[in-house]
User: Fold this.
Amino acid sequence: MATTADIGRGMIIKLDGSLYSVVEFGENKTARAAAKVWARLKGVDNNRTIEKTWNSGDTIFPVRVEKKTYQFLYKDDTGYNFMNTETFEQITLQEEMVDAPQFLKEGQEVAVLINTETDQPMSVELPDKIVVKVTYSEPGLRGDTATRTLKPARVETGATVNVPLFVNEGELIRINTKTGEYVERVK
Assistant:
């Protein structure tokens, strides 16, 4: 058994029959009352985001999760198809289980979170930053660089990302998959 002292960012806990990932947590202390522990939780098996408060020292129920490396193969009518890079076993997952499906490209390695109690995949995590090619972008206006002006650009995965004016079609850029923002140009 674990207590609220063991809570950490990224931990997956079972709460009211559902699984939640800890996004943020903290502790509130007052002079007269006992300390309280709060957490912002994101649903793993549902699309809910909730906040939960416990008394300090309360029991929580963490779920043991394994991260396995899978390779994205293709998307079809049944969902997104992935292959385990060690056993070559293939699985198909629905779009809501992928954290940023708009940035998936064929052959890309991802981490699949597996619930060890049921051996079922829970979600797919892309790397924090990926390199993609810009397939379409309007040319920037010369001399319009005094401010941090952004323009939309379509990347090879089909997603649209706001990029600085100096980024042109055919260049490689690094983007943050968690926020969907441009990070830097890659040489």
